[in-house]
Structures are given as structure tokens and as C-alpha cells.
Amino acid sequence: xxxxxxxxxxxxxxxxxxxxxxxxxxxxxxxxxxxxxxxxxxxxxxxxxxxxxxxxxxxxxxxxxxxxxxxxxxxxxxxxxxxxxxxxxxxxxxxxxxxxxxxxxxxxxxxxxxxxxxxxxxxxxxxxxxxxxxxxxxxxxxxxxxxxxxxxxxxxxxxxxxxxxxxxxxxxxxxxxxxxxxxxxxxxxxxxxxxxxxxxxxxxxxxxxxxxxxxxxxxxxxxxxxxxxxxxxxxxxxxxxx
Length: 242
Prior knowledge:
Number of domains: 2
Structural class: alpha/beta
Strand content: 25-35%
Number of strands: 12
CATH architecture of the largest domain: 2-Layer Sandwich
Largest sheet: 5 strands, mixed
Strand order of the largest sheet: 3-2-1-4-5
Shape: globular
Order of helices and strands: EEEHEHEHEEEEEHEHEHHH
Helix content: 25-40%
């Protein structure tokens, strides 16, 4: 089964074609260009380098968040259009699940962290086992200070942080949490479409798929745009009641 995957939940734009346990092609950009400028060229180049046509793809997998409001909307709209055009199944994968999957053979706790608004982080906790990787916490929005304080009290023997939120952690993290606290290497730290592709492949092989019409970005909390809309609605209702 051939799966075309896309991750645009952060500043990173990543596209991959995966097949079973093989990455046929993967492109990842971490530049200043917007997702609207680079996603379609990335997708086109990925298919070209894999020597595939769009019609030969068996299914699609896309990161649905949490993450950037604009990035998620663009990525999801792009993959939905391809799935609709080809009439092939589509699955949405949590961005945090995809990040954690970068470390599928790491021992100890795995803590992906993504930058959120208002100086907060999106996060969750994962563990690898012989049966596969498992999420052992709820998805959460938390400040860097509270996250570090939580682990300072827990004192895990091993924990690996990854994601663009690692830049918001204190420089003396090992002094606070102990020598078993590490940050993933640059190769594994940022979002990868291949991880989204392999997680999607597992679901697609089980016959699972998401409804193309109802699949939407996953926000742990309302985006700033939704906050403003809600505030505007409340203000208008208040004026009307007055």
C-alpha cells in the first residue's frame, strides 16, 4: 500500500510517500516560505522522485494538529482535494502522535512539545513497548514552567523531549530534571511526514478512514481567530440585549 503523507502543522513543511516499512521519498523544509507557497511543489516533487502518479497512491495521511491554525487549514484542504480527486481514503493523525513516532525505539518517557499561543505548549506523554508506542496521558496545553515543575516532582529516570517547543525549555534542564533528561537530535526533533505516513498506513491497512467532509483540524484549545470571533459574538449579543 502506497501512502502520501503531509505535515504542515508547524513552521516545517514535510511531504513523504511511504510503503509498508519503506520511505520511498521524503522532503522536509524549515524555511521562511509560507505553506501555501511550498506544499503543492513538495507534493509534486515527491511523486516525481518516487516515480509515481497521483492515481497510483492508495491513500492519504495528514497531520491534523494541534498546531498552527493557518498551516493546518492549508495542509488539510490540500490533502482533502487530492483525496476527493482520486476518490482514495484519507486519515487524519495527531501531530503529537506523529512527533512521538519519530522516537519509536527510544526507552523511557517521550514528551513531544509544540509551541502554542500565549507562551504555552501542546504536549502529551508516550511510552514504547513490545506491542508498539502508547500514549499514556491526555493531550494538554501547559506552560513550560508547569511542565518542568511536573517532571521535577516526578523525576523520571529517562525522558526525551522533542518538537519545536524544546526552544522554550530552560537551558539548565538536566540540572533540574537529572541526567536522564535529554532533547532529541536535530534529525528527530522536528515534524516528519514519514511518521504521519506510517501511522496513517496502519489505520488504512485496518480498513479505517476518516470522512472527508467532517475531518477537521484538532485544536486542544480554541485558536486566536476563534477566540476573537467568540468575543465579537458576545459583544454583539450584549449590544443587542442592551
